[in-house]
Design a protein that fits this description.
This protein has 493 residues and is of the alpha+beta class. It contains 15 helices and 27 strands. The strands form 7 sheets. It has an 11-stranded mixed sheet with strand order 3-9-10-16-13-12-11-24-27-23-22, sandwiched between helices. α3 crosses α7 and α10 packs across α13 (394-419).
Length: 493
């Protein structure tokens, strides 16, 4: 067994440490020299690239185009929308000078005090302000609308308590920013993009999600409504996995973005923004993985199939090479990513453990006896089940198996969520059950005061008001006041 796997903390012993260990040992990411920032390693970045490629295709299929906007934002831009700046002020990194110089005593470089910027620049925590300042130049008439732009970028928000992928100061994401002629069109866009995220999460990440709207207390700074998809991790905590915001006319008014409508009247543009980030990597790891390492959904696995030879001598390896490469070529023509690992610098046992740790969905092993018998050993990563099969039509078997694994890990995660979602009516029961983790559906009186009391006393927040939830009226579990419907509570990352 590989040493890396031996040292992997068990989920039951310390879930948080298990996650940290796995991210590092599976070669996904590591801490960087800059506090709060991470290095995404090639294997981790390969997973993110597959996510990015699929999402980008989905965005383009809905009419969106990619653009790029500056990393640095004039400080005055953030002052224009009061709620927005208040939401991000404490997280902003500020650039104050534009030049360094050598220290007089030869000790290194120092900031040149004469190179102070006239106006400080903010490293983007999000791009609404710089984009809406730009849209002012793009929009004059209803004929210029809608604008459906997305950008793939990095953002920076100071974080002191970090965890790889889940919460880092700098992270990668996409942010869509759209402009519309009517309120209805903008609201439809915000909901449509949430549906795109849910589709991606469930059908590609194999992560079941609850779609809903955030409470006023939890919505994005400067939004009228924030829509969210919430996923449950294996420790029962929620992870906000994507958000889409209906911004109303707030940013259009802040940056004076008006257009002449069909009635030849001047009005403000309606806006949305929406985004997902490398936090999805955390969701992927924590939803599916086990004590042997990563479990990756085949649709997002950088290597979907690994083939490993077991041989006694160079002559036998040459014969296995020929057969293994034939299988690999057939799989590749079917669009399946394959790695044939015949490197002689690691033993087969190490390779087995390493590819299990990295979550490769299907492993094929071929030895001398397999060559004679026309067989190959097939192992599926999700259940660790092994079976010796004929090499005849093995590529079709593997293709079907990848589909089965994709469906199985989704069903396993869905079953876990269903088993850990409960309904409670009393606050005493809520306080007891929240300690066990999971999602709790309960009545709430709709006030920020009650919401904040629950958060302070239990560390649980309203994750969302589900679109498909129980709409039966009742009474708030805390205050006894009337409640329109149940909302979803959980502790979260």
């Amino acid at each position: 067994m590989a040493k890396e796997l031996k040292d992997l903390t068990k989920r039951a012993d310390n879930y948080s440490q298990w996650y940290n260990d796995l991210v590092v040992k599976a070669d996904l990411a590591e801490q960087s020299a800059v506090r709060g920032c991470m290095v995404i390693k090639p294997y981790g970045y390969a997973i993110w690239e597959k996510m990015q490629r699929q999402l980008d295709d989905m965005f383009k299929a809905t009419g969106h185009v990619n653009a790029y906007f500056p990393l640095l934002i004039p400080k005055s831009f953030l002052s224009r929308e009061a709620e927005h700046v208040e939401g991000f002020a404490k997280e902003c990194a500020v650039v104050t000078h534009y030049r360094l110089k050598n220290a007089a005593d030869g000790s290194g470089v120092v900031v040149d005090p004469s190179a102070k910027l006239e106006e400080e620049l903010i490293i983007r925590p999000t791009s609404e302000t710089i984009i809406w300042n730009t849209y002012k130049n793009w929009i004059q008439s209803y004929r210029d609308l809608p604008i459906l732009c997305n950008q793939w970028a990095n953002v920076f928000r100071w974080e002191m308590r970090t965890r790889l992928f889940l919460r880092t100061a700098e992270f990668l994401w996409q942010e869509g920013h759209t402009a519309h002629a009517t309120r209805e069109e903008a609201e439809t866009e915000a909901r449509r993009m949430l549906d795109v995220y849910a589709d991606f999460a469930e059908n590609f990440m194999a992560v079941p999600v609850v779609k809903g709207v955030k409470s006023a207390n939890e919505r994005f700074a400067g939004a009228l409504d924030t829509y969210t998809i919430e996923a449950m991790m294996q420790d029962g905590k929620a992870l906000q996995s994507g958000t889409s915001h209906f911004l109303g006319q707030n940013f259009a008014k802040a940056f004076d973005v008006q257009f002449i409508n069909k009635n030849n009247e001047l009005e403000y543009v309606w806006a949305t923004s929406w985004g997902v980030s490398t936090r999805l990597m955390g969701a992927l790891i924590m939803t599916h993985s086990d004590d042997n390492g990563l479990v990756l959904p085949p649709k997002l696995a950088p290597i979907q199939v690994v083939i490993i030879p077991i041989y006694k001598n160079a002559e036998q390896l040459q014969a296995i090479d020929a057969k293994a490469n034939e299988i690999a070529d057939k799989l590749r023509t079917m669009g399946i990513s394959v790695k044939y690992d015949n490197a002689d610098n690691k033993r087969p046992g190490f390779k087995f453990a390493d590819y299990e740790l990295k979550g490769v969905p299907v492993r094929l092993v071929m030895g001398g006896r397999d060559l004679e018998n026309g067989t190959v050993e097939v192992m599926r990563r999700d259940t660790l089940e092994k079976e010796t099969m004929s090499v005849e039509n093995i590529e079709q078997v593997v293709k079907t198996l990848l589909d089965e694994i994709q469906a199985n890990i989704f069903q396993k995660a869905l079953k876990y969520r269903q088993e850990h979602t409960i309904t409670v009516d009393s606050y005493d029961e809520f306080k007891e059950k929240i300690e066990e983790g999971g999602f709790i559906l309960a009545h709430w009186d709709g006030t920020t005061e009650t919401e904040e009391r629950i958060k302070e006393e239990t560390k649980a927040t309203i994750r969302c008001i589900p679109f498909d939830g129980d709409t039966t009226p009742g009474v708030c579990m805390v205050t006894g006041k009337s409640s329109a419907r149940r909302v979803l509570f959980a502790r979260s990352y």
